[in-house]
Amino acid sequence: MSDTTPLPDDIDALKAMLAEARALLAERDLVIEQLKAQIDKLRRMQFGRKSEQLDRQITQLETELEDLSAARGVADMRRAHARANASTATAEAAPKEALPSHLSHEDHVLEPQPECPDCGQPMRALGEDVSEQLARVAAAFKVIRTIRRKMVCPCCHKITQPLMPGLPIERSIAHPSLLADILVSKFADHQPLYRQAQIAARDGVNLDPASTGRWVGQCEALCEPLTDALRRYTMAAFKLHADDTPIPVLAPGNKKTKTGRLWVYVRDDRRSGSTEPASVWFAYSPNRQGIHPQTHLASFKGILQADAFAGFNELFADGTVREAACWDHARRKLYDVHVRTPSQTTKEVLDMIGELYGIEASIRGSPANERLRVRQEKSKPLLAAIETWMQTTLAKLSKKSETAKAINYSLNQWNALTLYCEDGRVEISNVLAENALRCVALGRNNAQRQITRSRSLPIDAVPVAGPVPSDFRSGELRIITGTPRTEEDGLAVDIDGS
């Protein structure tokens, strides 16, 4: 209706026009509210406490800590020199951090003179003082020559010669120790191959990135039995955590990137008292279509804990896979509403959700049956109160409001959100999968198609939890594969010739 349109004299017509105008204004206000909510959310994504922002803040704080520690070290050294020059210097013991016990030790023994410097008599042992310093042996290149000598029989003239030890890559100059270092540096330390080439050049060694890239691909093929064994072990779990993240992939030929997806599947029941090793298996796909996780999880049966991605729905159709949702996602949507329009009502429900997490913290690491008992006793009444609040609040809201959308997100998957109160092995959130993807963020900008196609990543993608063996970087690449006709994953295949 135009502002210049004459108003009718009829009261009923005026009332109808007024009602229509009010409806238009209410709809306009709703659109404005939605736009403001989207802008606030985008601002928090850009300037808020997201993981990337936190990473940068942590880096800044770590740099500041390094500077302050260096300044403190300078002051300590000057004080030490001052005490050494003073005639009445007193020793001031500085606290020392215990050194790791698994490191090898090299003893430098300092013996005093065997005779007394005053009377010349033989000295007797009295004791010893031991001090320890942490040393590092710098990595160095060396050439390993394998010399196979020949022998000939003087009688029958038979010639013998030892066989050449097997190498991971035949007819290659790359020793297993070099391959191991390249793989660890690229996948665990996020050093792209061209940077590794620059580091090697400082030692006068030419590592062509094209050659090292080919070696990485060949090692990927060699490790396929390991990734297959890792996949089988991970998928054999009763409960699985799943998530995905975008990853830039170099498109062949045009030097541009496109967006692929990296899927992560986590087997980890240590929070419910299990002693089984945790494992993480990664899978790459060129897009986020549901067929990819459906293919990855084709043989899985049990409980799948993930976000509300529609691509998983096909897996839940026949009941062999049950859905467990993530309270982190449900809480975040309510929190976004509370940040923009804080109210006592939203604060109360966020406090109740916080109590749920407090209960989980108190039973973390307990056996599954104990966790289930506590959840039935404490968490279930809280969940009932939260559901009642959501139903009551929803009845008072417009269906298009942001608060209604946040509430409907939880109510639409309420059974999946409350499944953890039916099984002590299930978690309240999918944080295990999200944490497993943190290693990807560090090397996201260095992704290459050849690498992201790989189905697993080192360090996080290992079936055994614990530190990397001390001899791994020095060259032993060992593949663990499933032994035929057995149920154990126990066949060890050395690819370093040992």
UniProtKB/TrEMBL annotation:
Q: Which UniProt keywords apply?
A: Coiled coil
Name all Transposase TnpC homeodomain domain ranges.
34-106
Where does the Transposase IS66 zinc-finger binding domain lie?
Answer: 115-157
Coiled-coil region(s) at which residues? 25-71
Using the record's annotation, list all stretches that form the Transposase IS66 central domain.
Answer: 171-447
Q: Give the highest taxon in the source lineage.
A: Bacteria
InterPro entries attached here?
A: Transposase-related, Transposase_IS66_central, Transposase_TnpC_homeodom, Znf_dom_IS66
NCBIfam families, alphabetized: transpos_IS66
Q: What is the protein named?
A: Transposase
The organism's lineage is: Bacteria, Pseudomonadati, Pseudomonadota, Betaproteobacteria, Burkholderiales
